[in-house]
């Protein structure tokens, strides 16, 4: 038999699959596979994004008026404008009603204050002439008020009082005369001239403690009044005459006092 040769074995030939060229090829293949995977992922994301955008656009087209429906958009805006105008009109009317109610309330409060002031004046008046501590006085004109009716016509209210004879009735007639100027000259108008009637009787009065006597007088054109004289002619006893400055007698509505 032939013996195998002895000594070192020769080197085995290199495997081309395990060499440097093979490793580079494998790396290239792996990189290529990674790129393909990423490109596929990007494409999938792009498809999903496009689907979302398309779906959102479809929803907006379905529930919102688009440019292809301008009349619908105009109708919606007009409806909004009409609703706002109606609300503004309602608020304006409500504000007007509130202002009118406030003005009415202020007027009512002013009237009540005036009534209270009148009642207080009446109470003071009663206390002076009916109270036990009131000063005793005979027949007199406590107050005279004049109110204009027209340029020449005037309404007078004379308050007559007496508490000297308590319980006794004072009766008689009241007349007025007015001093003034006309054409630069002094003149005194009598009761008949003021009443524009001849021999007209005076205003009648009859009371125990006080009474308001009213009537009307007429001044001639161009007459400038200065003073007014009140004459009381009682049924018994001497006449009583008192004078008042015209400007002081002209005042607002007289305070009413009941006959007593």
TrEMBL record:
Residues 1-13 have a biased composition (Pro residues). The chain crosses the membrane at residues 41-60. The keyword Membrane applies. Keywords: Membrane, Transmembrane, Transmembrane helix. Residues 1-30 are annotated as: Disordered. It holds the Pfam family DUF6776. This is Transmembrane protein.
């Amino acid at each position: 038999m032939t013996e195998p040769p002895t000594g070192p074995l020769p080197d085995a030939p290199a495997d081309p699959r395990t060499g440097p060229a093979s490793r580079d090829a494998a790396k290239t293949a792996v990189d290529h596979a990674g790129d393909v995977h990423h490109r596929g992922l990007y494409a999938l994301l792009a498809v999903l994004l496009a689907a979302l955008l398309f779906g959102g656009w479809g929803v907006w087209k379905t529930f919102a008026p688009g440019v292809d429906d301008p009349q619908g958009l105009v109708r919606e805006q007009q409806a909004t404008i009409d609703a706002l105008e109606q609300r503004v009109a309602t608020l304006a009317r409500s504000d007007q009603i509130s202002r009118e109610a406030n003005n009415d309330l202020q007027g009512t409060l002013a009237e009540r204050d005036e009534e209270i002031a009148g009642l207080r004046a009446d109470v003071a008046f009663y206390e002076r002439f009916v109270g036990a501590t009131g000063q005793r006085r005979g027949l007199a004109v406590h107050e005279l008020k004049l109110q204009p009716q027209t340029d020449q016509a005037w309404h007078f209210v004379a308050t007559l009082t007496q508490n000297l004879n308590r319980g006794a009735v004072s009766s008689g007639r009241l007349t007025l005369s007015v001093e003034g100027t006309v054409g630069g000259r002094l003149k005194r108008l009598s009761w008949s001239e003021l009443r524009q009637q001849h021999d007209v009787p005076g205003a009648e009065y009859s009371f125990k403690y006080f009474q308001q006597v009213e009537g009307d007088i007429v001044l001639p054109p161009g007459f400038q009044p200065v003073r007014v004289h009140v004459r009381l002619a009682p049924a018994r006893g001497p006449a009583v005459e008192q004078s008042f400055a015209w400007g002081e007698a002209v005042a607002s509505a007289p305070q009413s006092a009941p006959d007593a």
